[in-house]
Amino acid sequence: MRHIRLLGDPILRRKAKEVEKIDENIKALVKDLFETMYATDGIGLAAPQIGVPLRIFVMDDGTPKTFINPAIVFKSAETNIAEEGCLSVPEVFENVERSNEIVIRYTDLDGNEIEERLSGYSARVAQHEYDHLDGILFIDLIPASRRFAIRQKLSNIIKQSGKKYSTNKP
After folding, report:
1. Mind listing the pLDDT tens digit for each residue in 6-27?
2. Phi, psi of 48 (to 5 degrees)
3. Which of 17, 34, 46, 126 could form a disulfide with 57 if both were Cys (CB 3.0 to 4.6 A apart)?
4. Mean pLDDT, range 138-155, rounded to an integer
5. Dist. CA 62–CA 67, nearest whole Å
6. In degrees rounded to 5, what are phi and psi of residue 28?
7. pLDDT score of 1
8. Is 100 helix (H, G, I), strand (E, B) or coil?
């Protein structure tokens, strides 16, 4: 299991790099992602959340899946609003608007190129994790008035992050 990086850690705000080759290191990373996700009761986890700036995320919406170098190639105009949380922003839950349906193209752990249509809950989880690969957190998608209302919680998480990772400037 790896440590989850928290809001305030600069890696969460960087755009992750493409995976060039699926090798034993990538397979070990994916294993760590799943292990960490399950140990922390998550339903999705992106590599930057455990300190690895690569374009990989995993999720389990009933079926465990690995997304390597994903690209969302379609988002429906129809959206819905639902509550989201994030392992990197603990104990914060806010309503976020997301597309009801997406088409995502990715490589799986066996090197297969896949294009898959996801809808509902699965689409929401995939969009949330995909955002992590571009340095976007769900709190960036909520109204400014909500961010203002929870600013003390966010500030406390940033302070906690600064204590865990000495490279951070609190």
Report:
1. 999 999 999 999 999 999 999 9
2. -60, -25
3. 46
4. 93
5. 15
6. -65, -40
7. 87
8. coil
Q: Which pTM value belongs to this model?
A: 0.92
Can you give the pLDDT at residue 161? 80
Catalytic residues: 129
* DSSP state at residue 53: -
CB atoms within 10 A of CB 68: 23
Task: Count CB atoms within 10 A of the CB of residue 110.
Answer: 9
Q: Rounded distance, CA 143 to CA 95, Å? A: 9
What single-letter DSSP state applies at residue 125?
Answer: H
How high is the pLDDT of residue 166? 41
Rounded to the nearest 10 degrees, how much is the dihedral formed by the CA atoms of 95, 14, 16, 29? Answer: -80
Distance CA 86, CA 92 (A): 7
> Rounded CA gap, 124 and 169, in Å?
32
Domains of the chain in start order, with CATH, are: 10-164 (3.90.45.10)
